[in-house]
Amino acid sequence: MSTFKAIRIDKDDQGYRAGLVQFDEKDLMEGDVTVAVSHSTVNYKDGLAITGKSPVVRRFPMIPGIDFAGTVETSTHKDFKAGDKVILNGFGVGETHLGGYAQKARVKGDWLVRLPDGMSAAEAMAIGTAGYTAMLCVMALERHGLTPDRGPAVVTGAAGGVGSVAVALLAKLGWRVIASTGRASEADYLKSLGAAEIIDRAELSAPGKPLGKERWAAGVDSVGSHTLANVLAQTKYAGAIAACGLAQGMDLPASVAPFILRGVALLGIDSVMAPQALRQAAWARLATDLDKSTLAAMTKTVKLEDAPATAADILAGKVRGRVVIEVG
């Protein structure tokens, strides 16, 4: 087909807006692989892009969607052929390169990862960048030498996409998980994912002391700002926190005390430009370490035309877990 359904973001004299359009295939950007997209997902960054609340999009018009899964239609890349099942996360897709909220995408084959055996495209997007980032966090904590016998692991923003998958992964790996959330109503949901303890985000979100009582050995933080500062201040000796988000803010009003008095490590996690070897390892782990029934319990599915409304909801903190978009 020469045209296909897509969500397009425009910025012009009429303002900043996103809506469903018919997009012409000839207007796709350069790439050596064309993919028939079947599924995408809504991440926090997608919410920022669609609403314009942050300058995520740097080219207009833009098809948002930093993730997609689908089937290769045509390829001149040596590693892919028609019929291959693939996943894409990051690499500026949905920001500077037309993204996954469309029935077709043309990208560089070097950006793609093969869909793991036994995983469907819908399951891959239930995981999405949020879940893949959570896995990168867990792997970073493991590389730092941390194991469940060292003490609990804290997860901030626990009811969100990264947080939900992080809770499930850490619990399955044997950690006692402390889940921080501002939504008390999600306590049963978080416990169903494996959280052993729920704490109110208010315990961590206000300005705190340079050092606090040692409470956890490891953590996954998607919130930033005062929350991350307080998480670091309450991390046990030689513990580590993997930081991957900025839901509260991109500032870090902390002191050096946890680093120089307790040997705490802050591990920065970037999912956008992560090298292929790390991506493939993360997706291989997700195929084995994330329980499918648990994944299904944290996931809901919407249509492509529902993406803009869902994007607004995720920024408003109204989205629990993961949202899959049926694109194809």
Number of helices: 10
Query: Biggest sheet: strands, sense, closure?
Result: 7 strands, mixed
- Calculate the mean pLDDT score and round it: 96
Low-confidence stretches: none
> What's the architecture of the largest domain, going by CATH?
Alpha-Beta Complex
The third-level CATH topology of the largest domain is Quinone Oxidoreductase, Chain A, domain 1
The CATH class assignment of the largest domain is Alpha Beta
Sheet-strand content, in percent, reads 25-35%
Rg estimate, integer Å = 20 Å
In CATH, the homologous superfamily of the largest domain goes by the name Medium-chain alcohol dehydrogenases, catalytic domain
Task: Specify the oligomeric state.
Answer: single chain
Domains (count): 2
**Rough shape?**
globular
The separation of the N and C termini measures: 13 Å
Helix and strand content put the structural class at: alpha/beta
Q: Compute the number of strand runs.
A: 15
The percent of residues in helical segments reads 25-40%
